[in-house]
């Protein structure tokens, strides 16, 4: 047996509903650059899973290739991981979901992994509505290959070398809404409170939940002239509402004025409460969502929050009419179609 | 031969590549030969980076396996490499932060230990310029190395002056000041590690294989380059992007490799000289389009830079594992050229040739390189690269008189080459289809499949192989004809195999060397003629399955007497290779067991991934009797500060399995 050299706390630590500590949700130490936005997101994923008392062994961590895609190694060391090739995570995830619908799929990808090489896969995943949490750690560059612009880099944004990006960005959120995604949120690695609430809400969603999180790359895209830097994001972030999450196992304590908030009941019985901020925004209205996102892009605003939600859309396991029992756990008796079925097929060939 | 090798070790982000550059450029300007290799990891900061720079009066063909001087930027480097420094050499480090213990670190006799008391050495400079950043201390160490290795101070100062030109005189003065401080300190404390050199002072360019490919493409008139970043091919893209305006190349960074090659084919079919580049993983995505270029007879050049596979594999390590992938890429049969350059200068000329072959023979050409060749810099002779290269665009139709009949894009000819009209030429319109077609480009398998037409079009395309082969120079045997053994290789191992041959010669083993550059088409007849005269044949490849030797056997029926392979991410080194060859000649196999050094490295890695920088591996003992079913390495883990033994780790000698890691101190919070 290999024991870890990681230190254990001397005093009894706090535990969650299933008796696990926050430390139990951690992974190995990060090898990313100090200050990388991805590490901040990792912390919130750990926190969300701990607070929701997710059973780690029932989670499948999925990712592609990139600095962002390395992060599943840094959280939930007790969960299984699938570190796929570049841009192919969505289809791997679809396969995993089909084989074992009881797993909670928690995926992390990058803007390159999702919006460049994986764009086709991304669109089809969303279209299928594969039940999973899909976090895009968006830094506008390919961090791992040394900072070239990705497809989400804003037009006019500059690299350290002074090179300017001349192509318009792909906006992951508006694309996801367009493709029919039932849960679309945008956040910022430097806004932990909102991020953890969105992550929790995403875990209660039955279908693809897309979270596009601006996550500055401190080494290649955090300078003056970048629109994905900590400074730029902090100065431009405009939360459209304050998001609260009440898990199904807790009582709702209503402490808001009727009409001052939007409340959405999630599939698993949890609730999200969206307190209106500056705008009168209802994330259940698709056209309004698209309109708002487009206006924000035009006005160079960095809107964050739950941009769109539709809890009624059937997810892929439902569409595929999967059995209650996960396919991966079928016993020999159910695994084969049975003698009668095969005889019938052979009979047709005679 | 008069030469020295300097090893520089630290973490990613320590700026050690810059120091290596200063050193290499200085030597290059003095007219010395330089070969550098950087062993690094796929992370942007941290990790262990190990750069070796070898300098010689004569051409140096690999990074060698000696170490004359060590520059340690962290304690880890001292622990790992201090013992490798040869007697007469020196170890240079920042004595304010690090320490060398000759006994503990296994320092050889007669190695000078030069701890630089950094704050004292830089005191004057700091007084004048203010506090300095930690990375600038590397410049002080470089000053010491310039003295120790007897390079020219003024030349090194000149290199720094050029490097910092854009930052202004003050930054130049600061850096030269630091260099001087290190130089003077070393002079006052140590003696030089080498005799004085004869400097020709003929400046030698210092470039990598990828740069040579990019410059070769520019010289050949490439007008379109597409790529998606991927190590170790990205630096071609970076060069292209940085020089696009200067040399007039349209450079496109695409969303994936499917687009990359299809764009290049689009540009090629429309009359451009076009090229694209990627690593093995990206090339896998290009395979479908490659066959399309084959059936449409499109000139396009594709650079495939191999790294450790399979899949994402070893992103920052070199390997020759993609031969079969490139050879077999895409369904069906079509002519393609595969050329594997063997050194940096050859990268340049192979690229120029690739464009000419692609245009003349109207086929995809793949340049196969690898991480070592693409990323290691070396000095070359300034005139080994010439810009006035021959350009052959093949048979082009720029005018067509309809009275001469219909223009046939795929006209059957003696050579198989059909005169090519570029889209836009009046009266020559045709359709290029990915379905098979007749001379005019009309599909032959729509209504029914015309068997004779299929035969003829296949024969037309495939016979281009013969014509091309006849034009290419056949490989030649290097070294004594009556050798005891012939070493067979391809690609980047050329230099190291050559050096191993020389070493063997000195040790009384006569060896010669057959290095094959053209993989497809293949000089089967000439190669058979050479090898059938060899007494013993040994293949040397950086892969597991000896792909090239298998391919050679399939083409010639000649098998090897032994295979030497390396697939652990690192490279062959001349002495080690010579030893393996001697073993192979004696009919013995190299041990695949985990060595003591391997065990230490594994422990370092384990500590890093589980606990950070506090501990280091200490004494290592082999235990032949253990509770495991194999002998084991028992490794003491020591606290770096207190030198106290804190844990014990057990690693299997045969399996490399980590049997246990036992903490000996109570866990503290
Ligand atoms: C087929 C293929 N092409 C290229 C690469 C090289 N590559 C690795 S990661 C990466 C981009 C990563 O960018 P992103 O997804 O934004 O992640 P980040 O590092 O920015 O977090 C690329 C191009 C690859 N691994 N596979
Ligand atoms: S390179 Fe950028 S994205 Fe990658 S770890 Fe460093 S800061 Fe993060
Ligand atoms: Mg990115």
- Basic shape of chain B: globular
The CA-CA distance between the termini of chain B, in Å, is 57 Å
Mean residue pLDDT of chain A: 92
Number of helices of chain B: 21
- Classification by helices and strands of chain A: alpha/beta
Strand content of chain B: 15-25%
Bound molecules: thiamine diphosphate, iron/sulfur cluster, magnesium ion
- Write down the overall mean pLDDT of chain B: 94
Name the features.
heterodimer; A: 350 residues; alpha/beta; Rossmann fold; 3-stranded antiparallel sheet; 13 strands; B: 669 residues; 7-stranded mixed sheet; 6-stranded mixed sheet; binds thiamine diphosphate; binds iron/sulfur cluster; binds magnesium ion
Question: Briefly, what is this?
Answer:
The complex is a heterodimer of chains A (350) and B (669). Chain A is α/β, with parallel strands linked by helices and 350 residues long.
Description:
The complex is a heterodimer of chains A (350) and B (669). With 350 residues, chain A is an alpha/beta fold. Chain A has one domain (18-332): Thiamin diphosphate (ThDP)-binding fold, Pyr/PP domains (Rossmann fold, 3-Layer(aba) Sandwich). Chain A has twelve helices and 13 strands. In chain A, the strands form three sheets. Chain A has an eight-stranded mixed beta sheet, with helices on both faces. In chain A, strand 5 and strand 6 (148-149) form a beta hairpin. Chain A is globular, with a radius of gyration of 21 Å. The N and C termini of chain A lie far apart (59 Å). Chain B has 669 residues and is an alpha/beta fold. In chain B, 36% of the residues lie in helices and 21% in strands. A seven-stranded mixed beta sheet of chain B has the order 9-8-10-11-13-12-20, with helices on both faces. In chain B, helix 8 packs parallel to helix 9 and helix 17 crosses helix 20 (574-585). The longest helix of chain B has 21 residues, at 169-189. Chain B is globular. Chain A binds chain B through residues 1-11, 28-29, 31-34, 65, 67, 85-87, 116-117, 119, 142-146, 148-149, 151, 163, 219, and chain B through 13, 42-47, 228-231, 234, 237, 241, 253, 255-257, 281, 311-312, 607, 609-612, 615, 647, 658, 660-663, 667-669. Thiamine diphosphate sits between chains A (65-68, 86, 110-113, 137, 139, 141-145, 150) and B (228-230, 257, 281-282, 285, 312).
